[in-house]
Design goal:
Elements: E1 2-5, E2 16-21, E3 40-45, H1 54-61, E4 65-71, H2 74-84, E5 90-96, H3 111-119, H4 123-134, H5 137-146, H6 153-163, E6 178-182, H7 190-197, E7 203-206, H8 214-221, H9 225-234, H10 239-242, H11 244-260, E8 267-270, H12 276-284, E9 290-294, E10 305-308, H13 311-314, E11 323-329, H14 338-348, E12 349-360, H15 382-389, E13 393-400, E14 403-406, H16 410-420, H17 429-436, E15 442-445, E16 447-454
Helix pairs in contact: 4-5, 11-12
């Protein structure tokens, strides 16, 4: 397997790496349309080539956060890699148009079709395969112009033969946070993919062909944390006076914590921000062992020990069983992988330790969904949260509520969004302009309160 680090993306120092596992017959050119400057990019491909070198692995290991995007046959290859390197700081893991058993009568390509492709592979049949992969003549033309790999048919035949024996069937599908499934896939049938992923908690169905829009997936699923930090810092002075639902939610979460009486010991608050929830937390459970984490600078007048950090990375550094309470109010929906973060919280909590969180459900901002662009906050349903948490926690309570804010006009609604920072995922001004012309005056919030005890 070759690993190529791409020089034309982020040229600044970064602790974040997007590691892409390409499909059969591909090379690093599949990542050329990914235009982000807040992380580095590396592409793994040519799986029959000499294995990942020690130098490659050492370079990958230097990052504090590794995001994984795997496509087609790369899904099985990535699952095997992640399973073998559990010590690496993986965050969000995205599987696209692939399964853990890529050659299989039920959950992959039919073995007879695979064997026929292998035996008849030539320049002509390869072009026919690529045309089916792209789904249309226009898409195939763009593929040839932008990402056609420079590899010989002989090398592709050898790689395909190797991949035919590749299977990650013994690895749980839960290793993935998000699964993309294209219903017009003419390579790995959509029905086979549906059977493979079964009851996975997050499957996104698209109208794409087998070849996805990699840039769109990255935009949708990977947070620009530099931008988030800047937006939240800009709204710090106006947040508390305008974030009405967040105020109510913080008070409700603090009340729940006080009633459940967590065991004594160190307390960690994730995303302390201006201190809205911090002050309520201090009232309900006075403690001298309070630690606050936030992406932005933490006000000096807030209690406890302060650390400006990325919580998704920092949580991995906590010693097992070192916390009695981990709490977060209106923050984890901005994480790349809330499920992975919850797993780390379970590890960091002592037995009987409490996880207390308020986040938001899928109907949040429903009225303005058509005006958002780019990364979407992670809005899981109550049922999804049960699936995510139950392997690691005894769930005491998951409660969903609904708030609808009414504004005089769309301008007032947009002003509310600006002053509270909830537009942190939508830097495009065109979205705001369309919202102002829409006449929409209602904004929905669906807070979900979670109280769980570490097993």
């Amino acid at each position: 397997m070759k690993v190529e680090f791409l020089p034309y993306h982020c040229t600044e120092p970064s602790q974040r790496l997007l590691l892409i596992f390409a499909g059969w017959g591909s090379d690093a050119s599949i990542a050329r349309k990914i235009e982000r400057a807040d992380f580095h990019v590396a592409v793994a491909y040519d799986y029959l080539a000499e294995g990942m070198t020690d130098a490659d692995l050492s370079r990958i290991s230097q990052y504090g956060e590794i995001m994984v995007l795997a496509w087609s046959y790369g899904v099985a290859a990535a699952a095997i890699f992640m399973h073998a390197h559990k010590h690496l700081p993986f965050s969000v893991r995205i599987a696209v148009n692939g399964t853990h058993t890529p050659v299989d009568a039920l959950t992959g390509i039919l073995p007879a079709i695979f064997q026929g492709t292998l035996e008849r592979l030539s320049e002509l049949t390869l072009q026919k395969f690529q045309r089916r992969m792209c789904g249309s003549a226009e898409a195939y033309k763009r593929y040839c112009e932008e990402m056609l790999p420079q590899r010989s048919v002989d090398s592709l035949r050898a790689e395909l033969k190797y991949l035919g024996s590749l299977s990650a069937g013994n690895i749980s599908s839960g290793i993935w946070d998000i699964v993309y499934l294209s219903q017009h896939d003419m390579i790995i049938p959509a029905e086979s993919q549906r059977r493979a992923w079964g009851a996975h908690h997050c499957v996104r169905v698209t109208d794409w062909s087998h070849l996805p829009d990699f840039a769109q997936i990255v935009s949708n699923e990977i947070a620009n944390k530099h931008y988030l930090t800047r937006r939240f810092a800009q709204t710090a002075g106006t947040y508390e006076s305008h974030a009405r639902v967040q105020q109510l939610s913080a008070a409700e979460l603090a009340k729940m914590i006080g009633e459940c009486a967590p065991p004594p010991g160190p307390v960690l608050e994730i995303g302390s921000g201006s201190g809205l929830f911090t002050r309520l937390l201090q009232q309900c459970i006075p403690t001298s062992e309070l630690t606050l984490w936030d992406l932005t600078p933490i006000p000096d007048d807030l209690p406890g020990n302060h650390l400006q950090c990325d919580a998704e990375t920092e949580i991995k550094r906590l010693a097992p069983g070192s916390m009695s309470l981990i709490a977060a109010a209106s923050v984890i929906q901005w994480f790349d992988s809330p499920p992975r973060f919850m797993e780390e919280c379970a590890r960091a909590l002592r037995p009987g330790g409490v996880l207390a969180v308020v986040t938001y459900g899928p109907d949040t901002y429903a009225s303005i969904r058509d005006f958002t662009a780019g990364f979407k906050p992670r809005y899981y349903s109550v049922a999804q949260w049960h699936k995510i948490l139950s392997p690691h926690f005894s769930i005491s309570k998951i409660v969903r509520k609904t708030h609808r804010l009414e504004f005089a006009d769309s301008h007032q609604l947009a002003r509310h969004i600006s002053l509270t920072g909830v537009n942190a995922s939508t830097p495009a001004t065109s979205s705001i302009r369309r919202l102002l012309r829409s006449g929409i005056r209602t904004l929905e919030y669906q807070p979900i309160f979670i109280l769980a005890v570490a097993k």
